[in-house]
Fold this sequence. Notes:
By secondary structure, the chain is mainly beta. The protein is 12% helix and 35% strand. It is built from 2 helices and 7 strands, in the order βαββαββββ.
Amino acid sequence: xxxxxxxxxxxxxxxxxxxxxxxxxxxxxxxxxxxxxxxxxxxxxxxxxxxxxxxxxxxxxxxxxxxxxxxxxxxxxxxxxxxxxxxxxxxxxxxxxxxxxxxxxxxxxxxxxxxxxxxxxxxx
Length: 124
């Protein structure tokens, strides 16, 4: 699967398949027809569809995955919780150069853990 067709598209990445069909049906019912869903390892992102203007991660890891930073456009934003359970912080990273990122601490949060997994097949 290639890049999303336009700026209105979103490309959620899920590690587990349960709920994907329900999410697809819900999005279609709301009129979001340019949405691609993929099951895979959230720490790896979606390099085949990169670059992205924004990446939002809804699970916490111990650090910021380099693969996600690499997939941002210049000026792009990465928002994700980082840290161990009970000590997580929501960060916003903005790409300011090829290897430069400005980081903003958005405060303490509590999210489920970001776990590693095998990338499965894509479904469009």
